[in-house]
Design a protein that fits this description.
The complex is a heterodimer of chains A (191) and B (219).
Chain A lengths: L3 H12 L4 H21 L4 H18 L10 H27 L3 H9 L13 H13 L3 H12 L4 H8 L3 H22 L2
Helix pairs in contact in A: 1-2, 2-3, 3-4, 6-9, 7-9, 8-9
Chain B lengths: L7 H9 L4 H12 L2 H20 L9 H12 L31 E2 L3 E4 L2 E7 L7 E7 L8 E3 L3 E7 L1 E3 L4 E3 L3 E4 L8 E2 L5 E7 L3 E3 L2 H10 L2
Antiparallel strand pairs in B: 1-3, 2-3, 3-4, 4-11, 5-12, 6-9, 6-11, 7-8, 7-10
The chains are: A mainly alpha (191), B alpha+beta (219).
Chain lengths: 191, 219
Amino acid sequence: MPTPDQLAAWISAVANPGDRVAFASLFRHFAPRIKAFLMRGGADAALAEELAQESMVNVWRKAGSFDPARAQASTWVFTIARNLRVDYARRGLDGAREQGGGEEAEELTAELPDTAPTPVEQLAAGQVEQGVREAMAKLPEDQALLLRLSFYEEQPHAEIAKTLSIPLGTVKSRIRRAMESLRRVLGHLQP
Amino acid sequence: MNKHHPDDELLLMQAAGRLSAGATLVVSAHLENCPHCRARLATAESVGGVLLDQIDPVMLEDGAFSRTLARIDAQAGQPAAAAARGQGARPPLPPGMEWPRSLDGCDISPWHRIGPDMRWSRVGLPQHPEARVFLLRMGAGRPLAAHTHSGREVTQVLYGAFDDGRAEWQAGDFDEADENIHHRPQVTPAGECICLVALEGPLRFDGLLARALGAWMGI
C-alpha cells in the first residue's frame, strides 16, 4: 500500500510534467477502490467501472489544482469521485461527463478565502488523514457503521434510521458523537 | 465567530455528496465566511478519503487503463469545461451588503413584494431547476407567519438579524429546521433582514391567507 506522501508525489508528477508512469500508479491504487466504493453504494459493475474510469480522467485533468499542503491525496480523489457520482445521480452519464465531475463543488473549495488557520488547517494534511484513520478505528461500532452508511448508501438518514430501526434523532446524535471523537483526536495532534 | 452553524449530520451529508443542490448552496454560503465549519467539513471529507483507502478493491475490466488514457488524449487541448456563468441583472441590496460567492451563476429574480415591508426573490440554479431556493427580505420588526415544515429547511442569514423564540440569528448564522420545528421568525428592531433559504418540502403555514401566499410563491 503506497503511503500518503507517495500518492501525493504521484499526483504532483501527473500535474507536471504529465507523468504517465505516475498516473499508472495512481490508477492501480485508486481506480479499483473507486469502483468498489460505487458498487457498495448500489451501482452495478458496469456503471461503477465507467464512473471509476471517468474519475481517473478527472484526476488527470485536475491534478494541477491538487495542493498537498491543504488536502490529502485519498480525500482529494474521494471528492472527485463523489462529485462525479452526484452529477451522475442528477443528470445521468452524459451530464456527468459534460460537467467533468462537478466543477461547482470543487470551485467552491478553490474559491474559499484564505483566513486564519483553524485547528485542523494547522496540521499537515497527512496528519489529518492519519488522525482520522486512527480515530475511526477506535469508534464504537454503532457510530462507525453510521459513518460508513452515510458515505456508501444512497439513502437519506431518515431511511437509514428506518432500516436500522432506530429514531432519526439517534442517527444524528451518533454521527455527532463520532465527529466529536474525530475532532478530539485531531485537536490532540495540534502542534 | 457566529453562534449558529450547520450540525455534524448536515456537514457529513455535504461531504458524502448526499445533500440536495439547494441545501448545498446555502451551506456553501455559510462556509464562505466560517473557517470553523470549513475545518469541520474537511474532517468529514477525510472520512471519505479513509473509507476509500480501506475498501476492498474491485478489479477493473481488462484494458480499462488504456481506455482511460484514450479518453484523456481525446480531451487533450480542450480546456476544462467552464461552468456556464449567467450573471444576469441582480436585485439591489442594502448598502454595504455583498452577494455570497456561492450565488455566482444563479439567476436571481427582482424583489417581489409579498406583504408590507416584505419581499422575496427566487434564486434559480441553472443545473438544478428542481431546487427551491429564495431570498427573503423583511423590514425591522416584521414577523413571518407562523409555520412548520414538511422537509428540511436551511437558512443562512446574510444581513440583519431575526428571532424566532428559540434564539436570535445574526448575519453569518445558519439555521436548520424540519417538521419538528414550528416557529414564527421575527426580524429584530435594529434593521431589515435578508436570508437565503432552501426548502426540501413545502412550508405549512398556520393561516389561510399565509398558505395562499406560500402557494403563490411556490414554497
